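Standup notes
- DV: blocked on the single-chain target, sequence here:
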Amino acid sequence: MTQYIYKHGRGSDDAHKRDAALFAELLSQHHQLKRETTRLANGILARTTSNNPNLAKILQAHVSGMAQRFASGRAIRSWDPLFAALFEFRDQIVMQYRDIDGGVEAQLTSDDPRLIELIHSHDQTLHQFVDFGYEKSGAISPKPDWLK
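- DV (later): unblocked, structure below
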């Protein structure tokens, strides 16, 4: 089986198309999502939920797809320095998630203080997607000062 790594955040295989469609649906219905984050000494614990059962299922499928992409190094948003760095350092970041009523609980952690900053910036980006939807989806993500 051929593995594709999308260096520019684009792809045309079935998994990429599915992931993009799920993300688009979440962005279009962002006002029905709620995201709460607890900062941990080594990362974050986040809960993203919706009162809309269909949207909660879409959210769960999205997180599952992103976890698979992350584990296999199938980058997304490679044009965005934050996402490029997340995939570059993915072997030093632990991502765990579980489906919960109405959504997903995810924990991202690292032992490297610089990568903890990266995780916090990623969390800030996801809050912006939930708060603003498409309005922020094309913008460069906030990133730590050390990331050029």
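- Follow-up: The beta strands are 33-40, 43-50, 94-100, 103-109.
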